[in-house]
Amino acid sequence: MTGRVRRPGRFLGASFAAEGVDQTRVGAIPGRLWQGRTKYLVGAICVFLCTIMLMPLVMTVLASVKSTADAAAVPPLYVPRGLSLDSYQRLWDYQAGLPAYLANSFGAAFLTIAFTLLLVVPAGYGLARFNVPFKEVIFILLLLALIIPYQALLTPIFLMFAKLKLTNTLIGLAILHTAIQLPFSVYIMRNSFEAVPRELEEAAVMDGGSSWQVLIKVFIPAVVPAIVTVTLFAFITSWNEFLGALVIMSKQSSFTLPVILAAARTETALGGTDWGMLQAGVTISIVPCVAIYLLLQRYYVSGLLSGAVK
User: Fold this and answer.
1) Which listed site, 23, 81, 96, 304, has its alpha carbon 20 to 30 Å from 104?
2) 92-100: long-range contacts (C-beta < 8 A, 24 or more apart)?
3) Residues whose CB falls within 8 Å of the CB of residue 225, separated by 6 or more in sequence, listed in order
4) Where do the structural domains in the chain lie, given as residue ranges?
5) CATH number for the segment(s) 86-308
6) pLDDT in tens, 210-251
């Protein structure tokens, strides 16, 4: 005896070699098992995170369909005993009526989208493709507006709008929302226009196209994802904005949905908030945002990346 200890790995390798088994495939088995377990682990984490994100929405919807007795139950009921649309009916008839407030919110949002696109598409095109003097300085000054909270400017804006008779109008509110959205939208559009190959522009110019024809027929089809991204952000900004609408709009009939929900939160009937009606309003306010995102999601990611990466 020499006292030499035979290594198990060598023994197993020799055994597999004797049996004609590919040792590279044998060594890959633990890696494959680990990859399979990693996929299950990542899937479980994703399901857990989705559950956390969706639970507030589910609880909001369930609270909106509770009956009055279930909403006032102590301890609270997380799952209603039965479905009831009484909260939606009370919200429908609240003050000027839910249709009026939805019309104000949609009107302000669509005007904001129109104003934003009319401003940022030519601005982004000019800053990206023309030799504008000090265009980099102008671009940086526009971006600096992002660090100034618009809430700090509401008082002078309100005084200016009062002189221009723009208070209690959807146009005035849309102008405010457009100003909020403008810097980020210019950033997206300018970088998207810069990403378009210059050869397309040169070919269109050689064919006799003017600057506007090149913009409409060449550039706009090429930056549709960025336009959709700007549209989505403009809609969500206008739809959810509260403080500006509260300051600009003083008539009850001109309130938007966030303002009327805040009024429903503070206005009590019997010393307590009507949580069912409030949750019904929150549920209704969520639906348009989710719907427009689902409709435009295939453009959203590519548009955001094209505007964020040169």
Assistant:
1) 304
2) 94/260, 94/264, 94/277, 95/252, 95/260, 95/263, 96/252, 96/253, 96/255, 98/281, 98/284, 100/253
3) 192, 299, 300, 302, 303, 306
4) 8-64, 86-308
5) 1.10.3720.10
6) 888 888 888 888 888 889 989 999 999 999 999 999 999 988
